Amino acid sequence: MVRLSMKAVLATDYGPPENYVVGNVPVPSPGPGQLLVRIAAASINPADVVLPSGAYRDVTPLDFPHVPGNDFAGTVVETGPGVTAFRAGDEIFGQAVPRVLRAMAGATRPSLSTGSLAEYAVFEADTPLLAHRPPNLSVADAAALATTGLTARALILTAQPKAGGTALVVGATGGVGTALVPLLAAAGVTVIATATAEDAGLLHDLGAADTIGYTDTYPDGVDAAFNLAVPDDQLATIAAAVRPGGQLLTITYPLPQQNRHDIDVKFVLDLDGALGGMREVAEAAASGALPATISRRYSLDEGPQACADFVRKHTTGKLVVTV
To answer: Which of 249, 267, 285 is the last residue of a domain?
Structure first.
């Protein structure tokens, strides 16, 4: 296979996603333990716009041009030496962070890539965050569920909610929220979810018993609160909704400060797949327990617009780029 160049979404310097372009760069080659994948679909995540913004340039400086993209679904076209778990022709999906984030990736078997908003990308093969895509899971749904499914499952397994309990989900209309709500509902939990009036119907369809507006007062005495959107300095109002002895779980940076000592506060991030990796996400998605919610789809040529919309517009579920 002769590979000279490929089309990719590119950040050519630090700046907003409106500055991204679609251009040609060399197709990456897989080294030992790596896979070359022909990308079929990718979904947008915060890192795709935060890293190129320059917000963390002192800690994680980028080389340009930078290809964003963490989540993907595609076909293995070549394997490097030592790869045994996958072979050319396999349909796979998963999550992999840019190589510049190696220090923040999984400690034992990190999942790194060259960026999935491209026609091709190289991934590490030996990681729990890649898996074979089930035949009944579309490429778009697989790309939408990689990070969201992994995170939603980690939240459920950390919280261990009990049937008959109550949960407040803040940020329920986002990618993780639309994956978490049906898992909570299936566990027998009464879910109260934040949502716009336009998204209320969707949240009810996903299993929420009630929805409240973003500026409404949170209910009192819930067993668990899940923060999927609010920064640390605003957690106190969410914590106040939790009964003594209850739980507050958050996935947003910075790490939470303990502002109540009568509840269990946890930051949940499982990049090692210790609570289950992409294989478990695949199984849950294939069974119908973990649905994908996709609000908008874009072509690769529209990839910069997808990144800009992620920042500038209200997003329900995931934005997916098909390649």
So the answer is: 267
